[in-house]
Amino acid sequence: MIIGSIIATLIAITPYLFYLYESAPDIQVWDTFLFTYDSKYYGSIFVLAWTLTGKVIPLYLIFIWFFTCRHWWYHVLLVPIAMYAYQIFITLNDDLDYVDSNQLIYLIPIMAVIVPSIYLIRAQIFNKINNADKTMEELEDEFKMTPKNFWDRLRNYF
Q1: Any residues with CB less than 8 A from the CB of 131 and at least 6 apart, and which?
Q2: How many CA atoms does the CB half-sphere of 56 hold within 13 Å?
Q3: What is the spatial distance between Cα 96 and Cα 101, in angstroms, rounded to a whole number?
Q4: Number of Cβ atoms within 10 Å of the Cβ of 56
């Protein structure tokens, strides 16, 4: 119950996290006591912050979904996680001409592992349906993960 409340709070604050970009200055070079950042490609820290929040917030929500999902297909969420992580990396790379270019090429190895494994699990489920008197929902419940604590849940994901 406490973990569910924490997760609900983390999801509920996402609109506030998204609008954090409004606190970024509209200048090209941002000099703070921690760092100095020169936004050469975007020309403004404000535009860079707006672009990053458009990629970080969905990644944040997909991470929450990944770590709370109990369905057998949760590993497929690694594909959008990898896509958004790549987009964030590319956004921070100042030498690029296009932010979202060629990302599918880098996702192919990840998809080559995840998509067939999801289909194999699905095939096993349908094989068990044909050989047993269980419903699809009962078989999906067999594949669901029900860890006892946080560390068991983390071990089951990796």
Answers
A1: none
A2: 17
A3: 9
A4: 20
The model's pTM: 0.64
- pLDDT tens across 87-135, in order? 888 888 764 555 556 666 777 787 788 878 777 877 777 776 666 666 6
**pLDDT digits over 43-68, tens only?**
888 999 999 999 999 999 999 999 88
Give dist(CA 3, CA 6) in Å, integer.
5
10: tokens are: 């983390």
pLDDT number for residue 8: 92
- Please compute Rg for the chain using Cα positions: 20
CA atoms within 13 A on the CB side of 125: 19
The residue type of 50 is W
Measure the CA–CA gap between 26 and 44, rounded to whole angstroms.
5
Closest CA to 101 of 88, 87, 89: 87
As a whole number of angstroms, the distance between CA 43 and CA 86 comes to: 21
